[in-house]
Amino acid sequence: MCGIIGCVGRGDGTLETLVHGLSKLEYRGYDSAGVALTAAGRGVDICKCAGEIEDLRETLADRTLSGEVGVGHTRWSTHGPPTDENAHPHMDCTDDVAVVHNGIIENYQSIRDELTRAGHTFTSDTDTEVVPHLIEDALDDGADAEDAVRTAIARLEGSYAIAAVVAGQEAIFAARNDSPLVLGVGDDALYLASDVPAFRDHTDRVVYLDDGEFARLDGGWTVTQADGTVVEKTVDTVDWDPEETGKSGYDHYMLKEIHEQPRALRQCLRGRVDELGGTVDVGDLGDLSPTGVQFVACGTSYHAALYAAQLFQAAGVPAQAFLASEYASGVPPIGDALVVGITQSGETADTLSALREAHRRGARTMAVTNTVGSTAARECDHAFYIRAGPEIGVAATKTFASQLAASNLLALATAGGDARGIVPALRDLPGDVQALLDDSAAPAVAETYEDAAAYFFIGRGLNYPVALEGALKMKEITYKHAEGFAAGELKHGPLALVTENTPVFAVVTGDGEMARKTIGNVKEVEARNAPVVAVTDGASDVERYADHVLTLPETHPRAASVLANVQLQLVSYHVAARLGRSIDKPRNLAKSVTVE
Ligand code: F6R
Q1: pLDDT per position as a tens digit, 319-363
Q2: Diameter of the chain by CA atoms?
């Protein structure tokens, strides 16, 4: 949530570099945006407004803004509504200091009261605005620019990634605590951002900042601790192309990312499954025979956790999935359990906090993440990468498929079980997803039901998390009411909601006991005149009771759930497209939620 960009060394191209970087970060927040620039011997110029990056571009068109050092920000509101005043950067009373911030400053109110008593004037509702005023005070006390920023940072409690520029200084000062920041090291210029895509067009060399670190970017870069001790940082190289963050001709990132699933799955599985031997190799993840596994995650990743827990249970390892935000309260002592955080971004505050709680209780922790160098990856004892490639659309799609594939690998490596059954299905999964994408009835289903009053999704076993995820995707991007239920629960209350205007999507795979029982539930809704959309591999006779069928290639039940989810992603996408929704940037949401 919220995106920060900064750059030094791009001369006349500084403003465009900042705005372009912000457009790459818009998935992190998009209710207001702004930039601040300065240069040697000059003041600080800022431009900011409510709205998206395009609105900022339009506002900039009427302004002359130049400078060779700058910072920019795209916001997802936490304190105060999205207005021009609350947009970042924020300035001090003298307009000599500009600050952008991601996170929440918990003690801002007491600092603001103190500064107000001392005569400072505030112009926004934000927590961030205390920072430039603190810097102003330190400058007034005679500190140089770097020391003034350090002095301000030392006063802050909470989570922050902060970048500041000071009039006339050809430098950016930055600090991180509980919110991501990464430096980009180009040949002639330096960059700073919340995430690599912001500057990936300019460099692939990156330095990840850790909590408590302070960075100065000018002709060169230094990273220090709060007390000034120099930290030797490693320069890493990212291994994906800038094109991977473009739309490649698709109308939306979400559609592009749905279509990238075959590739994402191939990348996830590459080198990790040995088909001949029917074994998997997940690399060195420490002792892979825990007495129990606890998964912690949020949103879509929580649905992956529900799926993963079932795989471990099936292999005889006690496993449970917890909503990360509920983990701290009421979870029994851990003992020898492995605690696995499933998190696409690796930066979700609730998940990080649950993993830290697990660590405090003495558990071994593992991050299953898409983001190399993310906080979760660095803080956990082990990291297992799902390798889905960058996901820009706010609604998670390809990362969910890759989380499910990665869960299969981990379950096989950790808990054992019948690898030969699933390994060939995993091998075929990318091709099966492609076949489904090439010939899906989802657009027609979306057309039929775009005006529905609500959408319900049901499934059992591994298809229960798929039902939950189908509903989450639908509500996220269409803004319409949608709920996912364990199929057996429908008759215990939700059936009262079912009418002829509420299509029920029934995920039924295989022809076993669970399929038969779910078909019983399908008959219950059919008897109430609700339209039924069966998502099925055709192994059972559910089609007889369905108004529409979304067909899945025949495969192993574990892989069938992945495929069923792809059909549901497509339905949600096409309903949202028909309704003209802001698919890649749904209202009120942000891709990376770095506050609890
Ligand atoms: C929904 C979605 C969110 C995330 C959740 C956790 O489409 O993307 O529900 O899954 O915010 O995010 P990560 O996986 O980054 O921890």
Answers
A1: 999 999 999 776 776 667 899 999 999 999 999 999 999 999 889
A2: 80
Domains of the chain (ranges; CATH) run 3-241 (3.60.20.10), 252-436 (3.40.50.10490), 439-588 (3.40.50.10490)
pLDDT digits (tens, 9 = 90+) for 87-143: 999 999 999 999 999 988 989 999 999 999 999 999 999 999 999 999 999 999 999
Ligand 1 proximity of 300 Cβ (cutoff 6 Å): yes
CA 410, chain centre distance (Å):
21
- Specify which residues 456 forms β-bridges with: 483, 504
Between CA 500 and CA 478 the distance in angstroms is: 20
What does the angle CA 544 – CA 565 – CA 401 come to, to the nearest 5 degrees?
150
Residue 331's Cβ-side half-sphere holds a number of Cα atoms within 13 Å equal to: 25
Q: How many CB atoms lie within 10 A of CB 40?
A: 10
Q: How far apart are CA 544 and CA 15, in angstroms?
A: 61
Residues 6+ apart with CB under 8 A from 51: 31, 32, 33, 82
Residue ID of nearest Cα to ligand 1 atom 11: 299
Where in the sequence numbering do the catalytic residues fall? Answer: 2, 591
* CA–CA separation, 16 and 34 (whole Å): 12
* CB of residue 590 inside a 6 A radius of ligand 1: no
User: What is the 3-class SS of 192-240, one letter each residue?
Assistant: EECCHHHCCCCCCEEEECCCCEEEEECCCEEEEECCCCECCCCCEECCC
Strand ranges across the sheet with 172-177: 90-91, 97-105, 158-166, 172-177, 213-217, 221-225
Map residue 498 onto helix, strand or coil: coil
In terms of DSSP bridges, do strands 382-385 and 364-369 run parallel, antiparallel, or are they unpaired? Answer: parallel
